[in-house]
């Protein structure tokens, strides 16, 4: 058997087994050393391949695609710094628990550490940011070796998706020549392979025993004022319904982060307090509404005012429910972790006698929520503000679509102004490491598996990843970008750095002074530049009727934006505290 046949059978068996285990998408970046993997994926009829030139963009595209499909996505790149360009997205995938399968080509061992081109040390390159690393064996085509590659493929899918999902890394040393021969018979088959030979094991879900559930409820006896907090959540579509049912039975308010998936959909929202970020901006309100206990599902909410609230209540018993494992409690407060499936946990509690919590406490939160909504939803400015942009977007965003949100001010404005909605809208964001990098590519990746995605982000995030637009154009992805352009880092205007005008603009404001309409022209996008909220709604609706890429650019002023937001927060606090008095 010659080298080409060995390489063909080795690579084809790996790719075939990856697909047998449910991988439906692969993102390929062009390169020479990765030729065997790229060709094998492209030849196999069971997978969709996406070719993205820049590995950094490719990795974030895969991240968005994996978030949208809720399943593992494979990536292929050549050796050298191409691999290193995956790093930012790998870090994000690690912290946001997204399954990626990184397949990196490498020089064979004799060409390492000898000055060969495109040869860097790729072993354990991503360190602890991957769940599993394997240096693959030099290709052979024996029965044992083909069993080996199938086992590694199957295991990589399992590990990426089991427990808390995350990235895995397999490194392939390939010798030249690198081409494959698809005329060979039976290259996708293996003699020792049967339908169930290498499928990953079945995973159960963690549940508390009846004694554990009763012990938990006993911890709450004598307490009256509790809070359920839902931060960025997993992908269980039943969870919003179950936690809403629990909150209603127990008469507890739910402080719901926009990424919890509790603000949108058909489940009951009578106890969902979506304006809590605006409410907790005020120190007096935070003091007045000190809880007796907190039950949190998911990661820490986006809201910084909620973070202040928690820090000011270090002695309040806090219970954090996690699916599998982990320690997501950045305040350092004393916390009881409950490792159980959230849906089963809620269902178990619903079957027990309900505690007698304060109904008045719930009513007070509901009344505050209505007050805040009245202020957030009223008033029309002559020129659109950033909050009005989110408000207008919510009114026209299509049913059964995805909203992908950038970091910094974009996700905070969604937190404040994207209120409860009966429409079925999935809200995604990269809140693992919270960086602004890769946002366009992430939104494009989500759009690759969705009928319609709306990406909301600021001008710095847009500029940082503009080459992500190429995939949108090349593949005709339906993506509407709501670009909020305040000519710089708008979030810094809310922070103490803004009090130092001498260096603020150069170091933090960082104005770009770019005409993004030219970028729209270069990538063949439909371009809109609305000036009012009504203009915005009209332009967004028009974009949703179009195919491909649309960019709706809203121009705002950073200083005016800060004043407008603060006036809203102050008006909310004034009315609530006046009524309390």
Structure description:
With 581 residues, this protein is of the alpha/beta class. The protein has 3 domains: 3-173, Rossmann fold (3-Layer(aba) Sandwich), CATH 3.40.50.970; 210-374, Rossmann fold (3-Layer(aba) Sandwich), CATH 3.40.50.1220; 381-560, Thiamin diphosphate (ThDP)-binding fold, Pyr/PP domains (Rossmann fold, 3-Layer(aba) Sandwich). It has 22 helices and 18 strands. The chain has helices at residues 3-20, 35-43, 55-69, 81-84, 87-96, 143-161, 210-219, 239-250, 276-279, 283-288, 304-311, 342-350, 359-377, 386-396, 409-417, 439-447, 459-464, 469-475, 501-509, 516-522, 533-544, 558-580; strands at 25-28, 48-51, 73-77, 100-106, 132-135, 167-173, 226-230, 254-256, 272-273, 293-297, 318-322, 335-339, 401-405, 425-429, 453-458, 479-485, 526-528, 549-555. The strands form 3 sheets. A 6-stranded parallel sheet has the order 2-1-3-4-6-5, sandwiched between helices. The chain is globular, with a radius of gyration of 26 Å.
Short key terms for the protein model shown above:
581 residues, alpha/beta, Rossmann fold, 3 domains, six-stranded parallel β-sheet, globular, metal-binding, 2-succinyl-5-enolpyruvyl-6-hydroxy-3-cyclohexene-1-carboxylic-acid synthase activity, EC 2.2.1.9
Relative strand content: 15-25%
The averaged pLDDT comes out at: 93
- The CATH class of the largest domain is Alpha Beta
Share in helix: 40-55%
The N- to C-terminal Cα distance equals: 88 Å
Cα-based radius of gyration, to the nearest Å: 26 Å
Number of domains: 3
CATH architecture of the largest domain: 3-Layer(aba) Sandwich
Largest sheet: 6 strands, parallel
Report the count of strand segments. Answer: 18
Morphology: globular
The number of distinct helices, counting runs of at least 4 residues, comes to 22
Assembly type: single chain
Strand order of the largest sheet: 2-1-3-4-6-5
**Low-pLDDT regions:** none
Protein name: 2-succinyl-5-enolpyruvyl-6-hydroxy-3-cyclohexene-1-carboxylate synthase
Family: Belongs to the TPP enzyme family. MenD subfamily.
GO molecular function, one term: 2-succinyl-5-enolpyruvyl-6-hydroxy-3-cyclohexene-1-carboxylic-acid synthase activity
EC number: 2.2.1.9
